[in-house]
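Issue: ligand-bound run for NAP - logging full I/O for the record.

Environment: standard queue, default settings, no custom constraints.

Inputs:
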Amino acid sequence: MRMAIAGATETVGRHVHRVAADRGHEVVPLSRRHGHDLTKGDVTDALAGVKTIIDVTGIQTLSRRRATTFFEAASRTIQASGTSAGVEHLVALSIVGIDGVDAAYYGAKLAHERAVESGDLPFTIARAAQFHEFAAQTVARGSVGPVTMTPTALLRPVAAREVAEYLVDLAESNPLGRAPDLVGPRDETLIDMVRSLLARTRLKRIAWEIPLPGPMGAAMASGRLRGTADARRGRVTFSDWLRDQHHEGA
Ligand SMILES: NC(=O)c1ccc[n+]([C@@H]2O[C@H](COP(=O)([O-])OP(=O)(O)OC[C@H]3O[C@@H](n4cnc5c(N)ncnc54)[C@H](OP(=O)(O)O)[C@@H]3O)[C@@H](O)[C@H]2O)c1
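Outputs:
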């Protein structure tokens, strides 16, 4: 199938690209690096012959306003261009456990979900827990000098590769509306994940745990982002994933 991947270049998107290509799909990557800024231009031409779009775009900010503006603008482009091009299915990735956390980045993800639900394209919204790669994202975004500020968080992280396999499974099926959540096999604290990553990569940094203020920080600390008992569970633990990193060169 000809399948477009919005946000095909980074943390989860590069896995989605690889999984879809490995399964024999013809992939159309949509990201700024591929010449498509979804907050600006129309991408109808790029979507010619595309049956399904997987939306794994993201923006690196905690600002609800900035992230909402991003997701609403990107969704408008995906909906309008997808409808013009005759796309039959939009699969969008969101985050487990954010219901009622209408603040900061999670408020923007709820706005993203509403934009998908209110559009014309038949859709599937899949929510995943934080990726194992979230530890590296925390180091990249939260480091000041030798210190990595690490939000207090109790998570059930999942490998981005398994999220990608799930999204491609969904893209190969009919639109579901809301799909079952996907979480990882074990509970982890973010501070332990970050410290293990720093030890593994021999980065000379100190990780400090700090509670993030506001409802988003409260949600992270509460454990609610681990999802509910009926969620699907990934198989790869954080420590397995960390051990395998040097084999993948990731
Ligand atoms: N990280 C997690 O733990 C996690 C967990 C669950 C769900 N999610 C959700 O999964 C999605 C992807 O997360 P991620 O961590 O993989 O994000 P990421 O690493 O920041 O990647 C974002 C992707 O979006 C593309 N992008 C950004 N701005 C764009 C624009 N204006 N037009 C077109 N493409 C654009 C980027 O490519 P270019 O820079 O080339 O444009 C990149 O491919 C997000 O919606 C996030 O909320 C993340």
